[in-house]
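Reply to dn_fold:

You asked what the input looked like. This is it:
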Amino acid sequence: MPSVRPASGQLRVSWLLLVAVGLVLAGVVTLAPSIGLLLEQRRDIAALEAQVTAQQENVEALQEEQARWDDPAYIEAQARDRLFFVYPGETSFVLLDDRSALETASADVPSATIEQPAEDWVAATASSFLVAGLTDDGPSSFGEPAEVGEPQ
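and this is what came back:
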């Protein structure tokens, strides 16, 4: 078979090239979800490894704290600081820093006059109790929503 040369500027595409491109595209379409899943799993693994590292550091810090409690001097210092324990014959003084309370106190002093309330709440409560106990009206007459199925 004689070879046909393409004219200048034209591209000759063979069926073998089309099959190869089709196979590459099919492979990409087939592998894309798997590659996405692989990347997601790698992110999850990295996050879990970071979490394990943080927890190992926390365990090491707690083990150091536990080792400190094996020292009798540390236990004594904690009892003196936290629980204010003293040896017999010692006198313990606790000094309070009241300057911070004075600095945070507001400058507004409440008035020393007694104000009368606008309403007599004792009389209002008693009348409400008497009205609710002595009436035969249903709950809808008191301004509350009536229950479903109850005639209004």
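The chain is about 55% helix and 0% strand.
Hope that clears it up.
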